[in-house]
């Protein structure tokens, strides 16, 4: 009986250790990833973003009104891109994480999207004809636009005037 009783504290001590370690592992397994998520979400938001402005016009000086511009990283096409709505006068301010915050430093392939159509004017055939294919299809893809710009940490260097050539139509 005495030998049996002598082993109980040893077994109980090991049981306590085993029970304590999984709790520790659960806590570490929970708090470390939670801390990393907070670091990524809170620590990076907007860091390294630089203001970027520009204007989109056709070669005759007519602004592209109400279009869309997207800057996609050249060296990491699936990386963080920046975009903007083009205003009535053809100007835009890029956003990456928040409104008009800009873009990360780097080279970008740029595409230009069609202006949005006004649903109230869709019954007007003249309006529809004028708005259809306003942006030539080559500019609507990063691969074919031929537009590439580099965003720097110097905001004075981050204004881009984009000139679009109208596609020649043959009848």
Structure description:
The chain is of the alpha+beta class. It has two helices and nine strands, in the order H-E-E-E-E-E-E-E-H-E-E. The chain has a four-stranded antiparallel sheet with strand order 4-3-7-8, with no helix packed on it. A hairpin with an 8-residue loop joins strand 3 (68-73) and strand 4. The radius of gyration is 29 Å and the shape is elongated.
Major beta sheet summary: 4 strands, antiparallel
N→C terminal distance: 108 Å
Give the overall shape: elongated
> pLDDT below 50 for ≥5 consecutive residues: which ranges?
34-45
Please report the total strand number as a whole number. 9
Overall mean confidence score, pLDDT: 78
- The succession of helices and strands, N to C, reads HEEEEEEEHEE
Radius of gyration: 29 Å
Strand pairing plus helix content: what structural class?
A: alpha+beta
Share of helix, binned: 25-40%
The spatial strand order of the largest sheet comes to 4-3-7-8
Strand content: 15-25%
């Amino acid at each position: 009986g005495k030998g049996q009783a002598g082993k109980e504290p040893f077994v109980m001590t090991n049981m306590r250790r085993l029970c304590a370690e999984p709790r520790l592992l659960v806590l570490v397994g929970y708090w470390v990833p939670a801390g990393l998520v907070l670091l990524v979400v809170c620590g990076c938001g907007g860091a390294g973003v630089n203001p970027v402005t520009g204007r989109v016009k056709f070669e005759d000086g007519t602004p592209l009104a109400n279009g869309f511009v997207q800057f996609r990283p050249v060296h990491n096409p699936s990386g963080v891109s920046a975009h903007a709505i083009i205003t009535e006068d053809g100007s835009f301010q890029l956003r990456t994480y928040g409104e008009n915050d800009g873009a990360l430093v780097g080279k970008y392939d740029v595409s230009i999207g069609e202006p949005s159509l006004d649903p109230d004017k869709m019954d007007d055939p003249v309006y529809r004809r004028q708005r259809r294919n306003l942006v030539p299809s080559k500019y609507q893809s990063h691969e074919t636009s031929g537009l590439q710009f580099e965003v720097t940490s110097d905001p004075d260097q981050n204004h881009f005037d984009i000139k679009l050539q109208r596609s020649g139509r043959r009848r």
